Amino acid sequence: MPDLLPRYGTATLADVLPSLLHAIGAPLDDRPPAFTLPPAQAAVLLLIDGLGHELLHAHAADAPVLAGLADAGPLTVGFPSTTPISLTSLGTGLPPGSHGTLGLRFRVDGELLDALGWSSGRRDLRDVLVPEQVQPEPTVLERAAAAGVEVRSVSPLEFRTSGLTRSGLRGGRYRGVAALGDLAVEILSGADGPGPRLVYAYHADLDKLGHLHGPGSPAWRWQLRQIDTLLGMLLEALPAGTLLAVTGDHGMVTVDRITDADAEPVLQDGVALLGGDPRARHVYVHPGATDDVLAAWRSTLGDDAWVVSRDEAVDGSWFGPVPDRVRDRIGDVVVALRGTAAVVRREAEPYLSTFPGQHGSLTPAEQLVPLLVHS
Question: Which GO MF terms does the UniProt record name (predicted)?
Answer without folding.
Answer: hydrolase activity
